[in-house]
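Morning. Coffee machine broken again, so started the prediction first thing and wrote up yesterday's gels while waiting. Chain of 181 residues, entered below exactly as on the submission form.
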Amino acid sequence: MKMLRVYTILFAAAVIAMGAGSMASPCLAQDANTGNAMSFANTKHVIGLQGLKHDVKGTLSAGDGSLVFTKGEKKVVVPAASIQEVMTGKDTQRAIGGTIGTISMFAPYGSGRFLSLFRSKIDTLSIEYLDPSGGLHGAVFTLPAGNALGAKKALLSQGARTSFPIEVEAAAQAKPKEKKQ
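Came back before lunch.
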């Protein structure tokens, strides 16, 4: 019962975060449907995919125009064309600030910043997608550190959309961090 209450509060904060994220205009991927499949092992599905339990480890792959999360015999497929937003934890750190940023920091959908408060050796990837009947859904994944940008690029190459250009994030990752003295 207590977990249900926590998920309800997190979902309410997620709605706020999705609203803030959808204010930017989406940009289409440049290399749609290249056919190059990429796979990311040791990915954890935190929440959001229909038919899967929360906190399940499996393999996330992007290929043949879709996102596929596989755990043993269980497989969930989300067509990349139905993915309205792909965000990494770094995307939301740049996009959302102030009070909204503080509130959305605890939202699982659209931000993933909640997880980054507790763990520094993982990357987060959040997607917003439409089901076949037009319903909006979101899913959050954690990947080993350094893989979220690659997963985002792979999804964009399959036809997913984002309002956060990957060039900005790639440039930020390429810059070495300055040490404070």
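Residues 19-34, 113-119 have pLDDT under 50 and may be disordered. Going to sketch it on the whiteboard this afternoon.
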